[in-house]
Design brief:
Length: 95
């Protein structure tokens, strides 16, 4: 039911835009209040959200968490397995 309402809302929005374009083509200036604000506010808020996500505010803590997880994983692997993997790698490199 939600998707039908969303589709209906989008169709109405597109129809209003086409109507506004047709009025503008005929030289009529009929602009609804709030439409300009909405078209300016949405891209600005999207740009602000993008800038926040791309900033160090999120990347630094995420990097710290990943480094900690890698260190724990390395500590969980027994030393004999690491030595064996290194030895096998050297043998493969020699052939």
């Amino acid at each position: 039911m939600g998707t039908i309402q969303k589709l209906s809302s989008q169709v109405i929005d597109y129809a209003e835009r086409v109507s506004d374009m047709a009025d503008a083509a005929q030289g009529k200036h009929h602009q609804r209040t709030g439409l300009t604000t909405r078209w300016l506010l949405l891209p600005a808020s999207g740009a602000a959200l993008y800038a926040l996500v791309k900033s160090d505010a999120f990347s630094r803590p995420a990097k710290e968490v990943m480094d900690e997880a890698k260190a724990r994983r390395r500590a969980a692997v027994p030393g004999t397995m690491v030595e064996r993997a290194l030895r096998e790698g050297r043998l493969l490199a020699q052939t």
